[in-house]
Hints:
Layout: E1 4-13, E2 18-29, E3 33-39, E4 46-52, E5 65-67, E6 73-79, E7 86-95, E8 98-107, E9 115-121, H1 123-126, E10 130-132, E11 141-146, E12 151-154, E13 159-164, E14 167-178, E15 182-187, E16 190-200, E17 209-210, E18 217-218, E19 228-234, E20 240-242, E21 245-247, E22 264-270, E23 273-278, E24 281-283, E25 308-313, E26 316-326, E27 332-337, E28 340-349, E29 358-361, E30 364-366, E31 379-380, E32 391-395, E33 398-400, E34 405-408, E35 413-417, E36 420-426, E37 438-440, E38 443-446, E39 453-454, E40 459-461, E41 466-469, E42 507-509, E43 514-520, E44 523-524, E45 528-534, E46 538-544, E47 551-554, E48 557-560, E49 565-572, E50 582-590, E51 596-605, E52 616-619, E53 633-635, E54 642-648, E55 652-661, E56 671-676, E57 682-685, E58 695-704, E59 707-715, E60 719-727
Parallel strand pairs: 9-11, 10-13, 11-14, 12-14, 13-15, 14-16, 15-19, 16-20, 16-21, 19-22, 20-23, 21-24, 23-25, 24-26, 25-27, 26-28, 27-29, 28-30, 28-31, 29-32, 30-33, 32-35, 34-36, 35-37, 36-38, 38-39, 43-51
Antiparallel strand pairs: 1-2, 2-3, 3-6, 4-7, 5-6, 7-8, 17-18, 40-41, 42-45, 43-44, 45-49, 46-48, 46-50, 47-49, 50-51, 52-60, 53-60, 54-59, 55-58, 55-60, 56-57, 56-59
Amino acid sequence: MASVKIFAAMLLLTAAAAVSVAAELSFAPLFNSCSIYLKTENSKGCTILYREKGTQKWLTPFEPVWDRSYGGRHRTCAVDLKPDTVYEVKAEIRWGKIRENAEGTFRTWAEKVPIAKKIVLTQKQVNNGYVIKAKGKPDGWILYTAAPGVVVKGDGKRQALLLDQAEYVIVENMTVKGGNNNAVFLNKCKYVRLRNLDISAWCDPGNWKFSKGTGRMVNSAGRTLSNKNGIYLNGGFGQVIERCYIHDPLLSSNSWRYGHPDGPQGISPWKPESTVIRYNDICGSDLKWWNDGIAGTGNFDLDGGLNKDCDVYGNFIAFANDDAIELDGGQQLVRCYRNHFENCFMGISIQGCMTGPSFVFENRVVDLGDELHRRSSAFKTADVWGGYYAASYFYNNTTDNANARLRLCRNFRIVAKNNILDEIVDGGATQFPFLGTRWENNLVKVKSSPKDMNGVPQYTNAARGIYTLKKSSPGAGKGAAVPGLNYKNPDLGVPRDLELPLRPFGLSLADGRKACFTVKKGKASAPVKFTLKAVAPVKFAVRKSLDSDWYEVTPAAASLKKGETLTITVKVKPEKMNSRIHYRSAFFLRTADGWSRPVSVRAVTDYKYPENGNGMLTFKPGAPFKKVSGGGVRFDGKEHKLEYKFTLSEPGGVFISLDVRALEPLGRHDSIRIGINGEKPSYCGLRGLNTKTYTRTAAKSYKLPAGTHTVTLSPRESLDLKAVHIVTDVTADERR
């Protein structure tokens, strides 16, 4: 299963002379893909093909990327391979008179491996956590499981389940609860598979408390909550995380309103190699949010994050105050595909593509928004750092969000094709044509390239979560061929016959996967029904987060025969929905062995927040400012300044926020100057403003002594201002 190296001597015959150059093919296979490396002294004219052994047709992998930084290598990968199957590869270099050839074979990983020993854990064995140091062998793996009802408990422990340098081990069908730092910790393991683990209730709440003045969790030393993970991977090789349900941490992250989110994360990898993360449900909730669903570490290290030779596919990730997933770091042949991401501040982050190439294809990124309904973009890129030869490829992704942008960088190559986006922004890439950045055949609302299509996608039924294009939609029938995706997709975006997240098992949601409700005057809109179809015999039960008691799903469990259909009904409970405007959740139709179909639930109520919450002072500007529509005034940055005094009865944190509306056209630097007690005012950015409604946006926080204080405000650009709020309890000023 380790990387296979094939050396081929190159024979070069020309009329003038013979030149001998060594070429090296090496492979890093996984279940359904394989990274292919061709070491050579020649940077151009590379052709690589592959085929299943015993077949005739040669297929094309993804576009090879050449990188001088690694001694001269072309890197590419083949996807949609069969497990436990031998493939042949041939490579050719043709550049001028140079001819260079290499051949080799590899075998993909097997789904089933030989089990030499099975260990069934009892409750007594795992009451105080459990440590696995076992070392199996390639022809004799060790399987750990638990008796029915057993819970691995990590109360007071750094982690509930520790795999310490374990090798050839499978851990499956376990419930894991607790762990101060991590629920599950994999420390430098080799060929370990976590399968169908139910992971929850970690984070050590006894040592943390919520700061009403800062909006963040802090401990007795004043440190903020960070690096608390459902699963943490410290290095390692050949690790698999599949069909796990990671949910309900005991604490929640903060939103960007109070600075960079800190808090629990679903999975956090620290520089592993040959990793597969697939078919998992990594779901926070409306009251328990991730920082990132899958978090990168070492974001700008050459081997950071998921590092190299990695697959992330078939996952459902929701409720992150920052990124659904960070690919940041090495991204050396890292593939992220056929996932579903929603209810996050940001979708997929590739900032810090240090070696590359990475491939992001056929993902669905929809309904973005953090806990306070702010969003950034479907994709995050950055010009902070990047690899000179690095590249990231975006193919056939579907987005349905405001600000669903892809920003092209000036420090590494980005290639975008067949995507559905709001906009593609040239962040300076065209100033450096040698990078090879290109974008074509995308459907965008804001056209930025003559090779893209301008238009608004018409989805089959977005309200029910069906994001296939109608036949009359722009982009329908306009799909172009992509090297490496060796099948025909007629449309832009995700292929219409692909049910996301990818889950190859016997249950299909035939007519939608999202339920939307309204609640007015205590009455809810009609229940929403879904039709399930069994393409194979299947038995499932409904699972959802602990704080999702505001709706019910019936039946709560069912067993279906092949070809049988079933209608499930989702119904909200208005009597449980009296604390906020927006309610969001997801439930899962999960089988006993961890397969699932997720369904999203959203509701909007007529709840009214009090004008002045607990610990809130509100100031409304009036004369001599000019009145504008909506109850505000025109606050001119060139002429105006506000000054307010307030008194604190005891020392503590103070948070200042504003009800603000931007002018038309939108300002590029919406911000405000704030000073306290005579200090020189400093700028603070105002996020998420629009020109139609007033947005309550965060400005600045202070730690102040008891007594009377003076705050001064002036905008950088003219704004419409309705109110200034000074709060000692930031939750009093939140709108969820």
